[in-house]
Design brief:
The protein is an alpha+beta fold. The protein contains six helices and eight strands; from the N terminus they run βααβββαβαβββαα.
């Protein structure tokens, strides 16, 4: 049976397993540094990091955020040697069965076979691509916005509350301030 083990600090069992998989599965621009992850674990109570454990063995990670109107699944990954055994599907299905709010995820734009495969993976679990344009801010420091797409298991919610979702992610997950547009007054 697949179990979620909460990670609350860098000294927790399985943290080093989680961090090693995290750095292998996600490029630097799509993840935090050790210090950034430690900061979120220490100070951000809405951030939940979990080691996925099966038969007392670390098999993956599942990190998400809890907000008032939705959940945001930030990262999910399965250890490479056991991918393809539907553990990622099992983890998401367990999570979905325990939540009452819509779930939001980010995926890469469908520009290559891997990105298309990830989108299909989530579509099979009832997620849909949100039609609004979206870009992921840098996790830490300076950097460029990365074109991404949002998906949700409640497309109507995501489409009608897109700005709320985007602002919530930008402010809380990425600590990113959107520059306010300066507009000339109407003549």
């Amino acid at each position: 049976m697949l179990n979620f083990h909460r990670i609350t600090c860098v000294n927790c069992p399985h943290f080093s397993d989680l961090y090693n998989l995290y750095t292998q599965a996600f490029p630097p621009e799509e993840r935090r540094t050790w210090g950034g992850l430690e900061y979120e674990l220490t100070y951000e109570k809405r951030f939940c990091a979990h080691a996925l454990v099966q038969n007392d063995k670390f098999v993956g990670l599942f990190n998400y955020w809890t907000f008032n109107r939705f959940y945001y699944v930030e990262h999910i990954a399965i250890t490479q040697s056991i991918r393809g055994q539907k553990l990622g599907t099992d983890a998401m299905e367990i999570f979905k069965s325990q939540t009452q709010l819509p779930i939001i995820i980010e995926v890469e734009s469908p520009t290559n076979i891997d990105a298309i495969g990830r989108i299909r993976f989530y579509e099979k679990m009832g997620f849909s691509v949100v039609s609004h344009k979206y870009a992921q801010p840098p996790y830490e420091g300076e950097g460029f916005l990365i074109p991404m797409q949002l998906m949700s298991n409640d497309r109507h919610f995501a489409e009608t509350h897109f700005e709320l979702i985007k602002e919530t992610l930008y402010q809380n997950v990425y600590h990113y301030e959107v520059e306010k547009e300066v507009r000339a007054p109407n003549p």
